[in-house]
Amino acid sequence: MYAEIIINSNARALNRIFDYIIPKEMETSIKVGSRIFVPFGNGKKLEDGFVIGIKETSEFANKKIAKIDEQESLSEENVILAKLMARKYFCNISDCIKLMLPPGTGAKEIENRTKEKTGNFVYLQKTKEEIEKELVEGTIKSEKQQRALKVLIKTDGIYISDLEEIADVSKSILQTLNKNNYIKFVSEQIKRNPFINKNIERDFPKKLNEEQERCFNGINFCIENSEFSSNLIFGITGSGKTEIYLQLIASAIKQNKMAIVLVPEISLTPQMVDRFLARFGNQVAVLHSKLSIGERFDEWQKIKNGEVKIVIGARSAIFAPVKNLGIIIIDEEHDMSYKSEMTPRYDAKDIAKYIAEKSNCPLVLGSATPEITTFYHAKNRDIELYKLTKRANNATLPDVKIIDLRYELSHGNKSMISLELQDEIKKNLQKKEQTILFLNRRGYSTFIMCRECGYVAKCKNCNISLTYHKYENKLKCHYCGYEIPVMKECPECKSPKVKYFGTGTQKLEEEIHKLFPEATTIRMDIDTVSKKNSHEEILNKFKNENIDILIGTQMIVKGHHFPNVTLVGVVSADGTLNMEDYKAVEKTFQTIVQVSGRAGREQKKGRVYIQTYTPEHYAINLAQKQDYESFYNLEVDLRKRLKYPPFCDIILIKFNGKNLSEIQNISNRMYDTLNKILDKNQFILYKPVPSPVDKIQNKYRYRMILKGKVNLKLLDCIKYSMTENITSKIKETTITVDINPNNMM
Ligand code: ADP
Ligand code: ZN
Ligand code: ZN
């Protein structure tokens, strides 16, 4: 017998399928999914990999499998899914298999960790209070020692190697701390629990209202009878969607089944996680990118061993090794983070549907502003639709007003903030209530232009204008991070008349300080958020210290709960509207509705002000009224006329590389090939053209768009046109295929 094998390696040359002989004595134990070790090339070292197929004959196999790992293996379902994904998303099977292994760990590390019955941990030797006191008093002088201690205070026992990595310190720093009796090294195997320090009050099921009950019963039927179904819970924020999820999960657990809950980028939604912990305690495993490698590894093991019943995590948690799945829930299903923008470019919603079908369990999508495509399927009864029309806790919806910025300008107000919104902020400051200001652009000014000759400062690597960051006094490229000091005169004509245009969060914060010198502010954007837990720290600070105004980008939109926020200002609603992207209008609508949802979520009534240059635009008008269904009707008509999803798929084929003529050459050849083989009645193929951002990091970018319904035949045609035209001579161009991308740029 022979095995088809994928080697677990990033090396390009190893990224294909190899045949190996299965030794007689292993024939019964080796299965599809088995983890094995094989000799490779002339190397003495064994490489590890996975069996993805077994067959009776092979023309190529000449080496034998050396060893089998009985502990770690993939399931046969994993392998089937990985193969399917590789075909659909144009990537290697090994790229997909990586998603199904413990996150953040290569197979080598897994081996080390499982082999080690005892791990090398580090603990604090004094109490947290003592150390915190010393940190405040400044007795510990070394910054590196301070960093290590601060991490340890939070984690309560951690692998030594993880501490070194997270705190960015060397072993010798830790040894000094050990010598001075701050920390101790211990050899043992302990399950670290990232939530050990959270004191969460227990929470109990609520009696469901009529709408909730109908929804619960419909979906619960599928859990109890092990039936697949796709469901959408469509209800405004606060209408009780989460309460339904919690009770459905409780029902699944009662049947001894497990649950997967996907949430948008999880570090942005700590309060959502807290609610699951409050209801289910230690039956919950949390997977997210901000956990240390060891923490993630432990969560993964707990899931695999069935020690927990619920997995909650971002996109990739859909691949968690659950057994006996009872339900999959995708909260805020319209969120763009469910679609991966890296290889493999999968959509977690598609994978979730596939897994739910295979597991005979219901899939539940929830949103106040469903993706147009999802709602279209709900209208067509491909997805069961449950509407929740009331707020469960009787909180009132905020008053939403639209402000025409054209009027402000023509009446001499040059500030970013309209007079009316200024008044409202003033009122809030007096009442000691909090305000959130949303602006979807970071930095200070968007671009810099010479008024004499029209020169615009651009990144030298990317064909895109540089953004002015006032606090650092630098011009930065938001694509590649390239930065230069601010210029005093035009590099072209030496005129001193260089001027800053456009606005960002830094400038907004400065304006707020000018208008309201007494106000306290806090800013949240990529520039202020970088460390572990930093999102949570900023938001906790805003909440606990009752900071007057939170200024932020997209990041503040997600489901936080601030009882004292009564005013929300959308400083410019137009930012995303004019982008060259079929999803731009949908995104604008969703963002405005979501930001509005941040105001007045408890007893106090909220006010929302939306500033815009296009007050007549339907996305803005209907977002003001929180009228999703009217918005859907207009948008879906437009999509139908222009042939966009859900009426067809958009396949974006991107060419990227340093050699422009090679890109032009290969893209044209691919176009010609596809043009010959595709059925013109089913597909529209556009000629390759430079992308809207045509150069990033010195690499040229071209794109070719194909519209039509994706099916296996089409995928194979695309693959054929790629392989047909890629010869070994083409070295510098990478081609990626992205189906319904979030970002067309
Ligand atoms: P959503 O997920 O739609 O935003 P939640 O489930 O968070 O809504 O509900 C909003 C608030 O109302 C929460 O505090 C929740 O505990 C409460 N709630 C939900 N359903 C009920 C109910 N049937 N009875 C009482 N309170 C409820
Ligand atoms: Zn000039
Ligand atoms: Zn750049």
Q: Could you describe the 3D structure shown?
A:
This protein is of the alpha/beta class. 34% of the residues lie in helices and 23% in strands. It is built from 22 helices and 31 strands. The chain has a seven-stranded parallel sheet with strand order 11-12-10-13-14-9-15, sandwiched between helices. Strands 16-26-25-17-24-23 form a six-stranded parallel sheet, with helices on both faces. α12 links the parallel β13 (325-330) and β14 (362-367). α1 packs across α2 (93-100), α8 (210-224) packs parallel to α9 and α18 (584-596) runs parallel beside α19. The two termini are 49 Å apart. It binds adenosine-5'-diphosphate and zinc ion (2 copies). Adenosine-5'-diphosphate (ADP) is lined by residues 206-209, 212, 235, 237-243, 392-393.
Tell me the number of strands: 31
Strand order of the largest sheet: 11-12-10-13-14-9-15
Q: Give the CA-based shape.
A: globular
Bound molecules: adenosine-5'-diphosphate, zinc ion
Strand composition percent? 15-25%
Q: Brief overview, please?
A:
This protein is α/β, with parallel strands linked by helices and 745 residues long. The protein is 34% helix and 23% strand. The longest helix has 18 residues, at 660-677.
Write the layout of secondary structure elements.
Layout: E1 2-7, E2 17-21, E3 34-39, E4 46-55, E5 67-73, H1 76-89, H2 93-100, H3 107-115, E6 119-124, H4 128-137, H5 143-155, E7 158-159, H6 160-167, H7 171-179, E8 183-188, H8 210-224, E9 229-235, H9 241-254, E10 258-262, H10 270-280, E11 284-287, H11 293-304, E12 310-313, E13 325-330, H12 348-359, E14 362-367, H13 372-379, E15 384-388, E16 399-404, H14 405-410, H15 419-431, E17 434-438, E18 447-450, E19 467-469, E20 474-476, E21 483-485, E22 498-501, H16 505-515, E23 521-524, H17 534-544, E24 549-552, E25 565-570, H18 584-596, E26 607-612, H19 618-624, H20 628-642, E27 649-657, H21 660-677, E28 684-685, E29 689-696, E30 699-708, H22 712-725, E31 733-739
Parallel strand pairs: 9-14, 9-15, 10-12, 10-13, 11-12, 13-14, 16-26, 17-24, 17-25, 23-24, 25-26
Antiparallel strand pairs: 1-2, 1-4, 3-4, 3-5, 6-7, 6-8, 18-22, 19-20, 20-21, 27-30, 27-31, 28-30, 29-30
